[in-house]
Structure formats: C-alpha cells, structure tokens
C-alpha cells in the first residue's frame, strides 16, 4: 500500500480550526440526509471550501455508506480520509487500510481495555492514524493509557442520540498538550465552531450540517472562519 496521507498531522498543522467534513448519506436518528450524494464531487467541494480532512461513513445498515463511497471520496480530493464505522476487530482495521483510508475510528465505549490497546497498536503498525472517540473522563483516561495522540469527544450520546453541547467544552482542558483534540457531532453552525475553538480544539468533525446546507463550500468556509 502507498503511504497514508497523514490524518492527524493535517489537523495539527492546520491554521485555525480544522474542519473534518463528513460524507454522510443518512443517520439512524434523522433518516436520509443526502441519500443520492456523489462522494467524489462532495469531497472535491469540501476541499475547495478549505476542509482539512474527510470522514466517510462505510456502515451500510445504519448510515447507507460503503467502501465504494470511501474510495470515490478519496479519489475526488487530496485530503486524508477517516473510515467512520464500528471498528471491533483486527479485520476492521486492516479493511480500512485496504479501502484506502488514512485513519480509523476506535470508539472507547465499544471496546474493552485490551481491545482498544490492541486495535490502536495495529492501526499505527500498518500506517493508519487512530481517532479514539470518548464521551467522558473515564474514557479519556483509557485513551491516554494506550498512548492515544488523536482524541475525539463525541457530544452525542450513543444510546439516546441527544447532544450535550457542554460535554466537549468540559472535556477539552483535561486532554493533555500534545494530543490532537477533535470535537465530534452536534455542531450547528459558526457559533458552535467558535466555542469549540476557544475551548482548545484543533478540529471539529461535521456531517449533517454540511450535507444538508445546499452549499457545502460556503458552509465549510463559514466554520473555518468562526
């Protein structure tokens, strides 16, 4: 495989708040968002708007995504790409690399300590960055214990789907310097982006707001300038 594009480094080196723009057709809570999107075209528009990275849903059952979406999106731009899916075993990590992803998502709530450590190590060994997703202080402690250098705070509860906009602000000061900090989900516009930037986040991951905006280039630009 060719070297990965460097997901974490793209976020760390971005000027201002980096935007991870998501290729997202639907969601379990909202249904269809942009069911007939063209992944390559959307990725190109995200890049034109100034996005630092992409996130592509590959789960078919809940999000309508696919490995083909990831390949098409990555081919339509020069940005690093996160495979956004439920990563629960070694095969999922290796599949992400084979699909062409540059980073893989590890959800702390879905993995025990041994699994989290093992999959994180495997991702790094095969050239991927690993975004470790957390929700609270206990999960942050687990992420730091395995040496995670890229941590995402999900503002959406995985069970109720409710968004707690204060969660990321509360967690930011507890993430050590040297760790790339990402705020995930629930970003409703430039005001939220500004709040998260001021809280100390390097990046925000945004899907629904962008794919339903009607003008993704302008929408990404508005978030970056917040």
Topology:
Elements: H1 7-12, E1 18-23, E2 26-27, E3 31-32, H2 39-49, E4 53-57, H3 67-75, E5 81-84, H4 90-99, E6 103-107, H5 113-125, E7 129-134, H6 137-145, E8 150-154, H7 165-171, E9 180-184, H8 190-199, E10 203-206, H9 208-211, H10 216-224
Parallel strand pairs: 1-4, 1-10, 4-5, 5-6, 6-7, 7-8, 8-9, 9-10
Antiparallel strand pairs: 2-3
- CATH homologous superfamily - what is it? Aldolase class I
The unreliable regions are: none
The chain-level structural class is: alpha/beta
- Strand ordering within the main sheet: 1-4-5-6-7-8-9-10
Strand percentage = 15-25%
Shape call: globular
Return the average pLDDT rounded to an integer. 95
Relative helix content: 25-40%
Series of secondary-structure elements, N-terminal to C-terminal = HEEEHEHEHEHEHEHEHEHH
Features:
226 residues, alpha/beta, TIM Barrel, eight-stranded parallel beta barrel, two-stranded antiparallel ribbon, 10 strands, 19% strand, globular
Summarize the structure in words:
It is built from ten helices and ten strands. It has 226 residues and is an alpha/beta fold. It has a single domain, classed as Alpha-Beta Barrel (TIM Barrel). The mean pLDDT is 95. The strands form two sheets. It has an eight-stranded parallel β-barrel with strand order 1-4-5-6-7-8-9-10, surrounded by eight helices. Strands 2-3 form a two-stranded antiparallel ribbon. Helix 8 (190-199) links the parallel strand 9 (180-184) and strand 10 (203-206).
């Amino acid at each position: 495989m060719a070297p990965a594009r460097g997901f974490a480094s793209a976020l760390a080196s971005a000027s201002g708040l980096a935007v991870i723009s998501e290729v997202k057709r639907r969601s379990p809570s909202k249904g269809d968002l942009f069911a007939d999107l063209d992944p390559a075209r959307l990725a190109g528009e995200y890049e034109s708007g100034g996005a630092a990275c992409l996130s592509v849903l590959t789960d078919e059952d809940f999000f309508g995504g696919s490995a083909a979406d990831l390949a098409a999106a990555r081919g339509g731009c020069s940005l690093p790409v996160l495979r956004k899916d439920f990563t629960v075993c070694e095969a999922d990590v290796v599949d992400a690399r084979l699909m062409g992803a540059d980073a893989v998502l590890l959800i702390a709530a879905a993995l025990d300590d041994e699994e989290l450590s093992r999959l994180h190590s495997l991702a790094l060994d095969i050239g991927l960055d690993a975004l470790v997703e957390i929700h609270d202080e206990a999960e942050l402690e687990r992420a730091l214990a395995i040496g995670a250098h890229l941590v995402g705070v999900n503002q959406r509860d995985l069970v109720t789907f409710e968004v707690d906009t204060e969660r990321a602000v509360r967690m930011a000061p507890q993430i050590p310097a040297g760790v790339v900090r990402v705020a995930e989900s629930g970003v409703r516009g430039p005001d939220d982006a500004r709040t998260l930037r001021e809280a100390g986040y390097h990046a925000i991951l945004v899907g629904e707001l962008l794919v339903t905006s009607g003008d993704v280039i302008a929408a990404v630009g508005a978030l970056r300038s917040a």
